[in-house]
Amino acid sequence: MLPKSWRWLEDYAAANERLVIGLISGTSADGVDAALVRVIGDKPKRVETLAFTTLPYPAKIRKAVLEVSHNGDIETLCWLNFALGELFAEAALKVIEIAGVDRKRVQLIGSHGQTVRHLPPNRKHRTTQSLSRIGTLQIASPAVIAMKTGIPVVSDFRAKDMAVGGQGAPLVPLVDWLLLRHSRKTRIALNIGGIANLTVLPAKAKASDVLAFDTGPGNMLIDGAVRHFSGGALNYDRNGEWARQGRVDKNLLRWLMSHPFLRQPPPKSTGREMFGDAFLREVLERAKLLGLTERDTVATLTAFTAESIADAIRRFVLPKFERVDELIVSGGGANNPILMAMLHEKLPRVKIRRSDELGINADAKEAIAFAVLAHRTVMGFAGNLPSATGAKMPVILGSITLPR
User: Fold this and answer.
1) Residue 277 CB contacts under 8 Å (≥ 6 apart), including other chains
2) Which long-range contacts link 255-264 to residues 24+ away (Cβ below 8 Å)?
3) Helix, strand or coil for residue 110?
4) Which of 49, 72, 99, 140 is deepest in the core (most CB within 10 A)?
């Protein structure tokens, strides 16, 4: 018999349908994405999105997140953890309100939190027995979220994968495999957030057949450049207008494509530590020396995102698979028509579709994924794919925080 405080778990496990919320703020650190989904079946069989919303970060919070991600102090990290917990809880309550459901019907929250540092292992770390600078930290206190919403919370998803030798990322590929694999088509699920990552799903793929990795920057450098040039008035290149007005500089693009991460074989993951403000400053200095306009710089960074994705597919995917039938795109980059046009140009033989066409909201996909991963944690199923993260074994991810 479970203790009284855990009896909700019996009810959850016995149900065929559950209402679960997924919460995440990505490397762009611009707000909390919240998705309320209906999870059908145990592993599950199907997922239906009932509502989605994004709660923007206040300017003070976003500034603190970016600062603590680079050179922040421990006091800022401490209060920010609780402040983000409040915002994540607010986002959860907001998506419940939008869906028009009774809060008591929502049985679980999966909160990825906000990554402030990600230090994955490299090949050297895998062969040494000494202590290494390996770790990952996502904040947004699950205790605050649980107490503010009254709903159990699964959090800290990445740590356990890293504890068994994995990169701790990407974790969405398992959900891609559950929801997007096809019996006849080889698909690539591409998410373009702050960082771009892809999941290769061969036709009739078993979980062990999946290949997934981060390709490099997605929107991170584009957003950072637009924010810099606009003096903070704009946070991203809306509809690709800046890129549309500029020209791609081949010299700067060639230098960008020489970055060693792009040649590093999977499994691999990256983040703001590699492609954040320090790297952007170097890009902007080079652009200035080359005499590029602000629009030229944004156009070239947009081309860099597209070319690095296409290069990853040519370099690491096509040699292993006979063909790629479809590229299923999600994330904020899917809303940039210039970036999408560049992908079409660089991958002319691949059919490119938005995930919306397959019933998965392109903006909500990662939030949906962490709702599904939280569900798998509570049901006792693994949430990582060793073929994607490099972990030694599949493991049940995360920690559970109860509201009472």
Assistant:
1) 66, 70, 224
2) 255/286, 256/283, 256/300, 256/301, 256/304, 256/308, 257/304, 257/307, 257/308, 257/311, 259/216, 261/216, 262/215, 262/216, 262/308, 262/311, 262/312, 262/315, 263/315
3) strand
4) 140
Burial (CB < 10 A; 0-12, 13-18, 19+), residue 249, is buried
User: What is the secondary structure of 253-286 as a DSSP string?
Assistant: HHHHTT-HHHHSPSS----HHHHSHHHHHHHHHH
pLDDT in tens, the chain (404 residues): 667 777 888 989 999 999 999 999 988 888 999 999 999 999 998 999 999 999 999 999 999 998 998 887 899 999 999 999 999 999 999 999 999 999 999 999 999 999 999 888 875 544 434 457 889 999 999 999 999 999 999 999 999 999 999 999 899 999 999 999 999 999 999 999 999 999 999 999 999 999 999 999 999 999 999 999 999 899 899 999 999 999 999 999 999 999 999 999 999 989 888 999 899 999 999 999 999 999 999 999 999 999 999 999 999 999 998 889 999 999 999 999 999 999 999 999 999 999 999 999 999 999 999 999 999 999 999 999 999 999 999 999 999 999 97
Whether 33 and 363 have beta carbons less than 8 Å apart is answered as yes
Distance separating alpha carbons of residues 259 and 252, to the nearest angstrom: 12
Per DSSP, the three-state class of 379 is helix
pTM of this structure: 0.92
| Coil vs helix vs strand at 149 | helix
Closest CA to 198 of 118, 264, 274, 267: 267
Find the length of the chain. 404
Instruction: State the amino acid at position 265 in one-letter form.
Output: P
Alpha-carbon torsion angle 335, 118, 188, 254, nearest 10: 70
Domains in the chain with CATH codes: 4-167+364-401 (3.30.420.40), 173-349 (3.30.420.40)
- CA dist 182 and 178 (Å) reads 10
Is residue 235 within 8 Å of 31, Cβ to Cβ?
A: no
> Tokens 């009254």 map to which residue?
150
